[in-house]
Amino acid sequence: MTKLSRRDFIAFGLGAATTIGGLVTLGKWQSRDIPVTRAEGNKVQLFLHIPKTGGTSLREHIMKNVKASQIAMPESPSNIWHLQKYYSHYLNDYDYIYVRGHFARDWTRFLTDYTDQTEAITMLRDPIERVRSAYQYQTTHWATKGSYAESLVQRAPENLAAVIDLFDQDNKSGKADQHFLMEFNDGITRRLCGKKWAVPYRQTTADMLEAAKNNLDKHFKVIGVTEEYNKFLYLLRVDYGWKLNPSIRKNATAKKLTLSELDIEKISDLNRLDLELYTHAKMRADALFDALSAEERANYDRFINPNAG
Fold first, then answer.
1. H or E element that contains 24
2. Of 66, 98, 144, 272, which alpha carbon lies 20 to 30 A from 120's?
3. Beta-carbon neighbour count of residue 147 at 10 Å?
């Protein structure tokens, strides 16, 4: 029999205390005086969370309007598979309002198999800024021992142009983490096209872009861009009646990397499809906002300036 050390007992005690504290917090969250059921005819909102677009901040907003039991946030592939397999059961037996995740493949199943019960929302970001933010975030928070992010940090590239050179070298030598590289090579298009996330690095195609545009136009009721985040929040407020306030910033990078013309050129070359898709999404987001009534647009001014006279 293995003898437990004093450290084991301390670790167990800390773990139990954390669990109990989490349950207490969850109980308080569940008992909040907020709507419990979806209004008749309303659909579940599936939020396709593209990394580093402001989705974590959006989660903070949504958590003020939806109970814990009404939110599904699968992130690991196994949880995504589980949600896909039992989604119809969840819709029938659970009163879900909001489902979110960094879905990279087959998320369209939610919208094609359950189109009468589900609709999608998403937010895009200028690809140049997204790559800068994603690289800083990955190398600051996820450069764990043995990770590809750690190997990049250890080589200390001077700028993002040098980082992309390392991507190319490592991809050629077979030393790169392909999933890591895919996020920086048309990562938005890869997600939104629905079925071709795993296309090799630098091999994204025009048909992926067209599929992504078609998916945006066909499936997404509310589209926003990070650069006009409060307009996105306001559209959600108008469409779903959520009590949202102007932006709460989470996971924001404190000190941004300075980009040179060469950095921008290399990032753009690596994300040609994303740049075109972002332009398309921005036009869609603008059209949604322009379609608001004159009264709703006037209320937007009060939304972002609640204390204005």
1. helix 6-30
2. 272
3. 15
Contact 134, 184 (CB under 8 A): yes
> With contact defined as beta carbons under 8 Å apart, do 49 and 124 qualify?
no
- Angle, alpha carbons 280-281-282 (nearest 5°): 90
Query: How do beta strands 118-124 and 44-48 pair?
Result: parallel
Let me know: does 151 contact 278? Beta carbons within 8 Å. Answer: no
**Residue 88 forms beta bridges with which residues?**
none
Sequence-distant contacts of 133-138: CB under 8 A, at least 24 apart: 133/52, 133/253, 133/256, 134/51, 134/52, 134/183, 134/184, 134/187, 135/160, 135/163, 135/184, 135/257, 136/253, 136/256, 136/257, 137/52, 137/251, 137/253, 138/180
For 79, other C-beta atoms within 10 Å of its C-beta total 13
Q: What is the pTM of this model?
A: 0.83
Tokens of 265: 């050129």
Q: Are 57 and 248 in contact (CB under 8 A)?
A: yes
pLDDT number for residue 23: 44
**Domains of the chain and any CATH numbers:** 36-304 (3.40.50.300)
Q: What is the CA radius of gyration of the chain?
A: 21
pLDDT in tens, 274-306: 999 999 999 999 999 999 999 999 999 999 988
